[in-house]
Amino acid sequence: MSDLDHNTLRRAIAEAALSLSANAIAPQLVADALAYGGAKLTTHGALSVETGAFTGRSPKDKFVVRDGLTEEKVWWDNSGALTPAQFDLLLSDIKAHLAGQDLYQQDLLAGADPRHQYGVTVLTPSAWHALFIRNLLIRPGEGIATSDAATPVTIIHAPLFTADPARHGTRTETVIALDMSRNVVLIGGTSYAGEIKKSVFSLFNFHAPADDVLPMHCSANLGPDGEAALFFGLSGTGKTTLSNDPARPLIGDDEHGWSKDGVFNLEGGCYAKTVKLSASAEPEIFTATRTFGTVLENVVLDANSVPAFDDVSLTENTRAAYPLDVLPSLAPGSVGGTPKTVVFLTADAFGVLPPLAKLTPEQAVYHFLSGYTAKVAGTERGVTEPQATFSACFGAPFMPLHPTVYGDMLAERLRSSGAQAWLLNTGWIGGAYGVGKRIDIASTRRLLTAALDGTLDTAPTRVDPLFGFAVPTDVAGVDPRLLDPRQCWADTDAYDVQALKLVDLFRNNFKKFGPDADAEAGPQLLQAAE
Length: 530
Fold this sequence. Notes:
28% helix; alpha/beta; 15 helices; Phosphoenolpyruvate Carboxykinase, domain 1; nine-stranded mixed beta sheet; Phosphoenolpyruvate Carboxykinase, domain 3; 530 residues; Phosphoenolpyruvate Carboxykinase, domain 2
C-alpha cells in the first residue's frame, strides 16, 4: 500500500462493517452510547463515561512510520518507529478486527484557516468516542471557512484491538501509529479518547513547519484590537482557566497554528480538566459540564447522578469534552491577528519562581524549549515532594520534529511581531508545596490583566539574580511582597537552597538539546548559574 486513496480505505472499512452511522449528531450518539456503550447521563444532561485501564495518554506506545519522508525529520529520541510493512500489517489486522462491527464515521475538519486545513475522517466502533471527536474537531458548516482542497486524514480507532509486539513491532498490546507520508493513524488497545485528539495534533505538528506555520500547544484569545494572546502550559497550570475570559473572545483552547497572517485554531472544542472544578472559580467550564452532549471522562457521579468533581478515585485526570459554541465569548471564525502577548504558564511547586516575569526573546525560547512545571506530592503514587516536569515546547509527546525546529520558528515570530513574552507562575509562594500556599487566582488574574493590557510595559522591574529575567516590582491590586518570592519565605537561606536546586534542574534538562542550544537559548540562566 505505497500509495493510498483515503476514500478507498474508508469505503473498504465501511463495507466490511455490520452497519455504519455516518456523521450522526449528538442526540443519536448519546442514545447509542447509553444503550450500548455503558455510558450514563448526568442529572444535567452530560454524558458520563469511563475509559477503563487507561485514564491518560500512552506516549511510550506511540509510533511513527520510518520512511523517506520521516527518516531525517522526526525526533526519534521522542518517538518509536515502525517500518512501512509493520504499519501495513497492523492496518490489515485492525481492518479485520473491525469487520462485522457497528461503526461510526465522523467527517470533520482540523484548522480554521482554509489554507492550512485537514479533512479528518474518524472511524470507530464506539458511539461516545464518535461524540467526543465530533465535539473537539471542527464540524463543517458551523461558521468556519472551509477549503475544497483540505488534506485528507483517516483515523481508525479500535479500542478493543490487541496489538502483538512480535507481529506488529509494538511495545505492548496498545498502539498509536502514525503514517506521516499517507496521513493515516491507527489507535488500538486503549479507550482513552485523548489519543484521537492528540494524533491530529501530531500530524499537524509534523507538516505545519513545511508550510511556514508554527504549530503550538496553547490556548489563545483576542484583545480589544483583534490581536491575539497565547497561553502555553502543561496540565494543571491554568491554561484553559485563564484563557477563558468573557472580556476576551476565545480563539481556541488547546492547539493552534501561527502563520504569517496570524493565529488560527486547529479544533472546534475544548478538552478541559475538571478536577476540583467549581462554578465560582471556572464558571464557563462548569456551565459546559451541564450541557447536553458534553462528554465527561472518568468523572465520578454521586447517588443523584451529579458530577463529584472533588472525587479523584478513578483518576485526577478527569476531563470534559465540549464544542466551543457552548462558551459565551468566541472569536469569529476561530482566528485572530498577530499575537501581541505570549504567556508561558508554570505551576512551580518548589516555591521559587515569581508570580510574573518579563522575558527577552532569548529567554522566551529557553522557557519554551524547557516547558517546565512541577508535580506535587500526592498527585501520583510515590511522589512525596515536588518533582520538576519538563516537556519541550509544552507538548513533547506530540511534537514529532526536534524541539529546536519549533524553537527557531518561535524566535523568528517573536522578532518579526514584537510580541512580549511573560512567565506566569500559578504555583506556590512562601515555601514549597506542603509549606507554602498556592498563589490565589485573583492575584494571578490581576497580574495577567496587567501584562495583557500593556500596563506593565514600562513598569519598574528588578532582575532576578539566578534566572536573569525582569520581575515587576509594583502591580496595582497585588501585594508587593508577593512579587518577590524570596521575601515570602520565613527562612530565606532555605529559599536560596531551593532556588539553586531548581536552576540545576533546568540546566540538566537543557543538556539534551546540545551545547549549541545551551549557548543560544539560555544565556541568562546558564551564565547566572555558573
